[in-house]
Amino acid sequence: MKKLIALTLLLLAGAGQVNAADNQTEAFDLFLADFNYEIRADMKASSKQLIKMIEEKKAILLDIRFAEEVKVWKMGFGLQIPLNELPKRYRELPKDKIIVTACPHKDRSSLAMAYLRTKGYNARYLTDGLTGLAESLRGDDAKEFREDTGCCP
Fold first, then answer.
1. More confident of the two residues 135 and 45
2. Yes or no: is domain 35-149 CATH 3.20.20.70?
3. Which of 21, 90, 111, 124 is deepest in the core (most CB within 10 A)?
4. Can you tell me the mean pLDDT for 129-147?
5. How far apart, in whole angstroms, are the C-alpha atoms of residue 35 and residue 66?
6. Is the pLDDT of residue 25 over 90?
């Protein structure tokens, strides 16, 4: 298991950056050592919770899908940083907001959430994924969200 975690962190940090991977491993070790039920609950956000946090200007959506996925289907709000670019671009994210990572389901977004937490961000992953969010924001709900948040031109 430790080898799998180290390999994952090495891939996230970028091949050939052994010292960076070692630092990431230590940060992830600390994250896991402090892990409890409260953190488990705090690392998740449903679409309804995300919508409320965005309306209250407490959170931002971070779409971590690959660029070709975004070209086919955009959410129209939030930030987009592909998961494989996150190690180089995470500093673009605001530290004063909850970062809710999202992909179509939740596999990649949970990796992004854990990575961002090791970097000191208050990050969560979207439990019902972008497909669930899209279902929550359709019809009148989309119109109200757009008007309430001023998210979209």
1. 45
2. no
3. 124
4. 74
5. 29
6. no
103-132: average pLDDT: 93
Nearest Cα to Cα of residue 124 among 51, 62, 55: 62
User: What are the beta bridge partners of residue 23?
Assistant: none
* pLDDT-derived band at 16, boundaries 50, 70, 90: very low
Task: Match 């809710």 to its residue by tokens.
Answer: 100
Domain boundaries, the chain: 1-34, 35-149
Where does residue 39 fall: left (phi above 0), alpha (psi -120 to 50 degrees), or beta otherwise? alpha
